[in-house]
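Weekly sync, protein design subgroup
Attendees: M.S., D.O., the rotation student, P.L. (late)

Item 1: inverse folding check
M.S. brought a backbone from last month's batch and wanted to see whether the design step gives back something sensible before we order anything. D.O. pointed out we never logged the input encoding, so this time it goes straight into the notes. Structure tokens as presented (780 positions):
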């Protein structure tokens, strides 16, 4: 049946003054019969009066041939300039007839939006849900093209394009979109099934569609996608603040228009976690972000603390250990918003429209770290129960990352403190070399390594230069480094040659590995070490390495090169020998010892890096400290992946005027001559005040060498920062202090030497041993 709409106009007296063609079709009365008559004469029933108000109801009118006709009438008052009623405008149509078939009623009453279009994308039929979505009745849309009934937007054009494709291809399509609708106040996700409608001949005569509101499923997929993204984007660094920033960046703007991460103060320090207080909770802002550039709505600046009263959602979330949702209109929410506005009135315009907030505790391994807050302003939906489940899952993952970063920072701080306590703070005074050093801990996630160095004064004005590296990172590597450092100092005190010292150190590492708890077999600690001894008298450098990179040498003429040496096996391998080499160095040569972090990296060529090192050593520098900085700047990448230790030593030499040497005949009668020669040399040096003690030392040491040692015997005096007396002989038997009894004739000589000198000792040489004693000299 043809759809007809009638229009009539009635004045304030109730007289018909206007009559449409549609009114004639519905009532049978032509305009010349209806206009001028009282409207009541056309009615088949009395109507209740409506005092100037619009109304809509079924009305029974009398057809021209006498039978009643029921029409759906809508009346709107016509108002004058003063608001007085001038009449009425009425529109009428036949009430919608019920669908005659079950299939038609199923289509009309379907719970999803269903529509039928002709091949030119014009509406042929809509069900009730489709009309509700479009916000108009079916008769307004029938016969109109889809693009004429909706705004010209990208999603509308995409929808229309799919309608055309179904007609052109004759195949069904599925179209998914995230868009709004004329009668909806927010965007929805739609899954639309489109299929062709055919004649028996197969010709496509229309397109039918059914649109499902899949918003909940879409949001669930979005939340799942965010969780998956969180696994890759949160915790990329072991930095607490950076991890919090990654959480905020993930949430804004897809889940929140504003988000913040506030942590308890102890998380950012090294303290143990205290219990969460029952009353006011103080948190420190570490990260926030919003849809507005610069986050102007934030009432708390980064780094500031914020005291949350017990009623606030963040405090409740921390105490209850669950997500807390709050919406506009709730008393506590309004108090929170008012407090934000008072604290930061300049951000008030950017908080306009705030209507929902979610607060989620950050808990990891049973420990509360802080709270994550999300706020919605432009986003139309309030936070729902599903959002709370998602937020708790995300917060759980984020909290683990933050706790990992906290633990890493704490371990790094501990390892760094341990390492700094073991490394030399102020290098000991000695005259053999001028030294400068740098130690750069790695900033990588692996943690602090086991790099170390040392400068150890030895007897005879010699000095030991040491650099080593324990493979691995963390407190364990730092502790192992400390053991090796102390072991080297102990072995250096025995004054062993470099190759022998490394042999003893290798045995120690093997024993340490075997003592590890839970180890079924000896594990390799993977330590390397380079030990060098420089003698300023002979100007000779003796060195040996255990798996360590060879040092570089800068000569006074400006040439720089690597020292050629056999590195030997790393410490802990056991059973393999170490080989020492000797070099005669000119005064002013610079020896560069370093760990592998300076030249080795996954993306670097070692030969090229060592070339850069040698080139950097030749750069002009006023001091050794400046040269250290030059080398590091030239050789290191921007972000080193390992710790770096660098030790530069510039050699000095003791001139012939500072050393006196005498060969002594192995006869007690020559002790007096040796004593006299030493006294005369002291006078030449202007050290007469040391003559008494020196005579006693020379007499005792020479006498012992003659009595208990073997030739050749040699006496040497060295004037350095201290006065050193050395007596060498061909025997390898070392003397030792012993307690002399009351009636013993001897045994008191070395005791006198130990009492009268600053320190004394013995060392093995290639031809026997050397007994030495030092006296402190007053600075001149």
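Designed sequence read out in the meeting:
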């Amino acid at each position: 049946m043809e759809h007809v709409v009638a229009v009539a106009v009635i004045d304030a007296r109730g007289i018909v003054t206007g009559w449409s063609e549609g009114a004639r079709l519905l009532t049978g009365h032509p305009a010349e019969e209806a206009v001028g008559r009282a409207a009541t004469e056309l009615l088949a029933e009395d109507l209740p009066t409506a005092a100037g108000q619009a109304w809509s109801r079924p009305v029974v009118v009398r057809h021209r041939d006498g039978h009643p006709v029921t029409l759906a009438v809508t009346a709107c008052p016509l108002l004058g300039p003063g608001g007085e009623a001038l009449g009425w405008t009425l529109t009428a149509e036949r009430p919608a007839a019920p669908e005659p078939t079950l299939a038609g009623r199923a289509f009309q009453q379907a719970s999803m939006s269903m529509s039928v279009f002709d091949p030119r994308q014009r509406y042929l039929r809509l069900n009730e849900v489709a009309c509700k979505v479009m916000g108009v009745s079916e008769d307004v849309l029938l016969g109109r093209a889809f693009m004429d009934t909706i705004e010209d937007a990208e999603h509308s054009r995409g929808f229309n394009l799919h309608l055309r494709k179904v007609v052109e291809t004759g195949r069904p399509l599925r179209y998914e979109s995230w868009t709004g609708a004329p009668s909806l106040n927010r965007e929805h996700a739609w899954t639309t099934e489109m299929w062709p409608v055919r004649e028996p001949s197969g010709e496509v005569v229309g397109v039918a569609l059914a649109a499902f509101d899949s918003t909940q499923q879409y949001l669930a997929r979005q939340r799942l996608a965010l969780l998956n993204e969180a696994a890759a984007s949160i915790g990329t660094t072991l930095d607490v603040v950076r991890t919090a920033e990654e959480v905020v960046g993930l949430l804004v703007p897809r889940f929140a228009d504003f988000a913040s991460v506030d942590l308890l103060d102890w998380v950012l320090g090294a303290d143990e976690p205290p219990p969460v207080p029952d009353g006011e909770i103080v948190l420190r802002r570490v990260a926030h972000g919003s849809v507005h550039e610069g986050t102007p709505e934030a009432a708390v600046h980064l780094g500031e603390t914020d005291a949350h009263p017990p009623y606030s959602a963040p405090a409740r979330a921390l105490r209850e250990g669950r997500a807390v949702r709050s919406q506009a209109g709730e008393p506590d929410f309004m108090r929170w918003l008012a407090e934000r506005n008072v604290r930061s009135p300049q951000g008030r315009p950017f908080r306009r429209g705030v209507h929902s907030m979610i607060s989620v505790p950050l808990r990891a391994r049973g420990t509360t770290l802080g709270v994550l807050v999300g706020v919605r302003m432009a986003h139309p939906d309030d936070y729902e129960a599903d959002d709370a489940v998602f937020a708790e899952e995300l917060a759980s993952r984020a909290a683990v990352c933050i706790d990992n970063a906290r633990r890493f920072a704490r371990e790094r701080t501990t390892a760094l403190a341990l390492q700094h306590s073991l490394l030399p703070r102020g290098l000991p005074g000695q005259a053999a070399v001028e030294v400068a050093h740098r130690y750069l801990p790695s900033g990588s996630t692996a943690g602090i390594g086991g790099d170390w160095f040392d400068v150890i004064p030895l007897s005879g004005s010699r000095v030991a230069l040491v650099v080593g590296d324990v493979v691995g990172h963390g407190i364990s590597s730092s502790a192992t480094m400390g053991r090796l450092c102390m072991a080297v100092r102990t072995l250096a005190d025995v004054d062993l040659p470099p190759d022998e010292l490394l042999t003893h150190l290798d045995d120690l590492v093997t024993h340490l590995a075997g003592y590890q708890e839970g180890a079924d077999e000896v594990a390799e600690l993977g330590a390397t070490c380079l030990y060098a001894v420089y003698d300023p008298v002979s100007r000779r450098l003796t060195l040996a390495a255990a798996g360590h990179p060879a040092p570089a040498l800068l000569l006074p003429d400006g040439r720089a090169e690597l020292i050629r040496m056999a590195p030997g096996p790393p410490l802990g391998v056991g059973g393999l020998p170490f080989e020492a080499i000797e070099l005669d160095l000119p005064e002013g040569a610079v020896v560069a010892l370093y760990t592998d972090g300076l030249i080795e990296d996954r993306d670097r060529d070692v030969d090229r890096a060592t070339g850069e090192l040698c080139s950097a050593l030749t750069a002009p520098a006023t001091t050794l400290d400046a040269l250290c900085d030059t080398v590091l700047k030239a050789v290191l990448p921007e972000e080193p992946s390992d710790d770096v230790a660098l030790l530069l030593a510039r050699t000095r030499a003791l001139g012939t005027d500072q050393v006196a040497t005498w060969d002594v005949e192995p006869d007690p009668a020559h002790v007096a001559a040796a004593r006299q020669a030493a006294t005369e040399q002291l006078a030449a040096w202007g050290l007469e005040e040391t003559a008494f003690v020196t005579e006693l030392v020379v007499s005792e040491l020479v006498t012992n060498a003659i009595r208990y040692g073997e030739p050749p015997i040699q006496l040497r005096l060295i004037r350095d920062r201290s006065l050193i007396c050395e007596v060498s002989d061909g025997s390898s038997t070392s003397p030792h202090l012993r307690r002399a009894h009351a009636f013993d004739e001897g045994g008191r000589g070395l005791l006198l030497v130990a009492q009268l000198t600053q320190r004394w000792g013995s060392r093995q040489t290639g031809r026997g041993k050397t007994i030495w004693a030092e006296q402190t000299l007053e600075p001149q």
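Discussion: DSSP finds 18 helices and 31 strands in the chain. The first strand starts at residue 5 and ends at 11.
Action: P.L. to compare against the previous round before Friday.
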